[in-house]
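Lab notebook, bench 4. Still working through the backlog of constructs that have no structural model yet. Next entry is a single chain of 194 residues. Request: give me the structure tokens for it.
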Amino acid sequence: MQPFRIVDLIPEDKELIQQTAQIAFEASQSISKIWLPTVEAAIEEVHESLKREGISQVLLDGDRVAAWVGASLQFSERVLEIHPLIVARAYQGNGLGRRMVNHVEAWARQRGALTLWIGTSDETRATSLSGVDLYENPGAAIANFHQLAPHPCGFWLRLGFCIVGILPDAEGVGKPSIMMAKPLQQKGGEADED
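Model written out:
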């Protein structure tokens, strides 16, 4: 059996694009009915990721897509947004998401990026930030954040990300987008080597 390997996703590889779109659609259904409502929407998302300044890569198990990560440079290449990070359901819980994030972090550091960030929505009332008026006291809402059910925030928090902001009602009333970030430099200016 071949070991997992990370490869660039390219527009000409229609089979990998189809597989990537399928795993993205399937994974998104448990957390968002809005983001990728169809496989066709997922195919469009994959093609969009190929146009961004950054990377779009898949982790292969033989010739099967096990995970997909996209990341784009922003703010004069000092900030890198990870979007999306998808692990196929059959491979979840095996450290592949962490492996892909570590890969992106190394790529970002080589380019001198200072910050990684992600946005994750809560459409399912899985966190204390969903279903409440976040305009009243957003700082307190973030300070008192906790999960009510499984949600991607838990994964990102375990990887050293912290909540740096919220966008109330981003996905509908009471359905916020949660912004999380992680520094790539230590306080003394040295690169964080995890």
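Notes after review: The first helix runs from residue 14 to 28. The mean pLDDT is 91. Flag for follow-up if needed.
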